[in-house]
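Structure (tokenized):
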């Protein structure tokens, strides 16, 4: 996954999904997220000229879409906001 801030992005997904990230180096250009079992589930890399999607107007189209299955949206929503510091 391309992004401007790999450590922050990896930390968000780690807070959301659990597991562990491959480094604590906040300046790393490439970070992997692993399940607790050790299986790699996501790779995140710095893209210096990253341009975020402008969905839904599609001027800059979606570049990745991740679906996360939850048991309850009412329970999951606060966890997502907490993971992003909101």
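Design, position by position:
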């Amino acid at each position: 996954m391309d992004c401007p801030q790999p450590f922050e992005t990896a930390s968000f997904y780690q807070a959301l999904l659990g597991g562990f990230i491959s480094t604590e180096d906040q300046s790393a250009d490439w970070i992997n997220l692993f399940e607790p079992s050790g299986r790699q589930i996501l790779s995140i890399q710095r893209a210096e000229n990253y341009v975020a999607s402008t969905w839904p107007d599609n001027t800059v189209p979606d570049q990745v879409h991740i679906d996360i299955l939850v048991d309850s949206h009412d329970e999951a929503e606060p966890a997502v906001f907490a993971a992003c510091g909101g």
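Reviewer-requested clarification: The longest helix spans residues 6-17. The chain has one domain: 2-83.
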